[in-house]
Amino acid sequence: MEKNRSSDTVWHHATVTRVRRESLNAHRGVILWFTGLSGAGKSSLSHAVEEELFNRGCRTFVLDGDNIRHGLCSDLGFSMEDRVENIRRIGAVTKLFVDAGIITLTAFISPYIADRARARSLVPQGDFLEIYCNCPLEVCEERDVKGLYRLARRGDIQNFTGISSPYQEPTDPELVVDTGSLTLDESVNRVITFMQQRGVIDLVQ
Amino acid sequence: MEKNRSSDTVWHHATVTRVRRESLNAHRGVILWFTGLSGAGKSSLSHAVEEELFNRGCRTFVLDGDNIRHGLCSDLGFSMEDRVENIRRIGAVTKLFVDAGIITLTAFISPYIADRARARSLVPQGDFLEIYCNCPLEVCEERDVKGLYRLARRGDIQNFTGISSPYQEPTDPELVVDTGSLTLDESVNRVITFMQQRGVIDLVQ
User: Fold this and answer.
1) How far apart are CA A48 and CA B146, in angstroms?
2) What ipTM was predicted for this assembly?
3) CATH no. for residue B86?
4) Helix, strand, coil content of chain A in percent (nearest 5)
């Protein structure tokens, strides 16, 4: 019996591949990596894009502060070191999701070029689509949806991106969306059109 | 224009819920948490179950040493502290996958009761299905598919579960599969039947 058991070696094998999942889903798995200042609209835009994609029958998931900072990265703060580790783990998770054939949207400030480049390096070329939510600091601060800029200016929040911590703009993102001047609908359309052009989703769906 | 922008507050909202995803997928998202000794057949069984589920049109994903230890947890070793953190992170990731509506299979020794209980606590009751791959240590060691038991007995591997590190058997798992005596097909059938009984997948599919 034990002898029979040793055929285990051939058992341990992932037969459900990414290609098969993508075929079942009828779309590619990709990462839409939204980056930009706090208040630039990353979270709003990613959720609105997800709604649009879901209505077209796509399998999607949004990773954002709500489901990452309270879970996987609950042990991390906002020091430079912790921010690097935060984005490292998020990158590793996006790789899993994209291997699962899912259109994976991330909505994190992700302020450092090196960290975004590392996340990009984890997946095959063309699977990591960096979308810069371009919104001037003044507009973000004027909006101050969460009241964080006010706290940061008062010094009540340390290491706040744009105020007391740097934001490194993407030098060569796949897409720039001017979230400071476009409406949400316009921004969503930009992303969807872009995805159609990239062949991630069909033109007519 | 900025005034208009401040309607951002209502935008930032996840509208694609787990319920909607499950409806699109036509099955529930659950976690099948396989636990057991090294060589008990967790990885083989989880991949074979995944193949069966995928052929029924289910959305699935397997988390195992191959895609976790080289990625998300590449910074962790096998000390007790690192094992705890390893399973903590895996638990957090399974929560994300189940929120994404996916049947999520994990194939980790996960030797400590407390760690499995913590992973279970992250999701609603009934979503975490603990499956004990019950295989006597002697059988696992006789198989020694990866040659690890031999190395552990020689002292070349430290903290090896069953040899130099404890394995805490589940006290109340949702399912026990006697992988030491059943064939792989028999084991797969046990899991599939169990999932049908639990209403995770349809009886006829």
Assistant:
1) 47
2) 0.92
3) 3.40.50.300
4) 45, 15, 40
Query: Of A18-22, A118-122, A199-203, B113-117, which gets the smallest average pLDDT?
Result: A199-203
Number of domains in chain A: 1
Q: How far is CA B122 from CA A127, A157, B194, in A?
A: 30, 29, 22
Domain-located, residue A205: no
Domain span including residue B21: 2-197
Bridge partners (DSSP) of residue A128 are A31
CA distance B9 to chain A (A): 6
Report whether pLDDT(B11) > 60: no
Tokens of B81: 């502290």
Residue A92 located in a structural domain: yes
B143 to A11: CB separation less than 8 angstroms, yes or no: no
pTM of the model: 0.92
pLDDT in tens, B64-89: 998 999 999 999 998 889 999 999 99
> How do residues A70-93 score in pLDDT, each as one tens digit?
999 999 998 889 999 999 999 999
Of B38, B43, B44, B110, the active-site residue reads B110
Identify whether B202 is part of a domain.
Answer: no
- Is position B79 annotated as part of the catalytic site? no
Is B45 in contact with B191 (CB distance < 8 Å)?
yes
Q: Please report whether residue B203 resides in a domain.
A: no
Measuring CA to CA, how many Å separate B105 from each of A34, B180, B191?
A: 29, 20, 12
